[in-house]
Specification:
Layout lengths: L7 H19 L6 H8 L3 H7 L3 H24 L6 H18 L2 H7 L9 H29 L7 H23 L7 H22 L12 H11 L10
GO molecular function, one term: DNA-binding transcription factor activity
Keywords: DNA-binding, Transcription, Transcription regulation
InterPro entries: Homeodomain-like_sf, HTH-type_TetR-like_transc_reg, HTH_TetR
Length: about 240
């Protein structure tokens, strides 16, 4: 029977899917190149043809995930008939729903080891992929708000960068708290995250020249849902 030769793009997608499944099950640092080769049935030479390294594969996963989220969220940020604040809030609210639907909390938990010092460069690269993709949309919304008189800032792109920086900082805070050496109860994690989100919301309002409470932030119930997916455990934080 003749061997079936798949197109490179199709095979790359398959390898990405198989690698993501491994990362979700075992965690990024616990998956070796040999594990990736075994699960994908790919030779080392073929793997390097698709991805120069394990890090390059993770970068490709981040690019794919960011592109999928962008395709879903861009129409929300650009909705017609809404003012800039309404568009911004709709986009921020929708980003939570999209990320939950895409399994972002589980993926974040699987990639938690990227926060370790030896993986910092790769983590920063992943954050940059997301920020570069969404920066033009955020900049356009904020610039439109300035034009409408809804926002008051002299640097729309800079404000967009700050909003994205808050999101990146929140991810680090959440994963770092969950992976602290000393056991932390889910309630304590929840309290820390809700307090930090309130701070970021107020900071966003003030750099946009808005009254406190104008921009949406995740509520306690939404944060609790994220924590449950990131680290399934009893409310008291004890291991099951």
């Amino acid at each position: 029977m003749p061997r079936v030769v798949k197109q490179k793009d199709i095979r790359q997608v398959e390898v990405l899917d198989q690698a993501l499944a491994l990362f979700l099950e075992y965690g990024y640092d616990n998956v070796s190149l040999n594990d990736l080769l075994a699960v994908s049935g790919t030779s080392k030479g073929a793997f390097y043809h698709y991805f120069p390294s394990k890090e390059a594969l993770v970068t490709a996963l981040a690019e794919r995930s960011a592109a999928e989220a962008f395709d879903r969220l861009k129409p929300v940020f650009e909705q017609a008939g809404a003012n800039a604040l309404e568009r911004l809030n709709a986009g921020l609210a929708a980003s939570y729903e999209v990320k939950m639907a895409m399994g972002a909390p589980e993926q974040l938990a699987a990639m938690a080891s990227l926060l370790k010092p030896h993986n910092q460069a790769l983590f920063d690269q992943i954050i940059t992929i997301w920020e570069d993709l969404f920066r033009p949309v955020l900049t356009e919304v904020i610039a439109q708000g300035v034009y409408e008189g809804v926002f008051d800032t002299f640097d729309p792109e800079g404000v967009g960068d700050m909003i994205q920086g808050f999101a990146a900082s929140m991810r680090k805070t959440l994963v770092g708290t969950l992976n602290a050496p000393d056991p932390t109860s889910r309630q304590e994690i929840l309290d820390v995250c809700v307090k930090r989100l309130k701070l970021y919301g107020i900071a966003t309002d003030r750099i946009l020249g808005l009254p406190d409470g104008s921009t949406v932030v995740l509520d306690r119930k939404q944060v609790e849902a994220m924590i449950a997916l990131l680290s399934p455990q009893p409310p008291d934080g004890s291991a099951t």
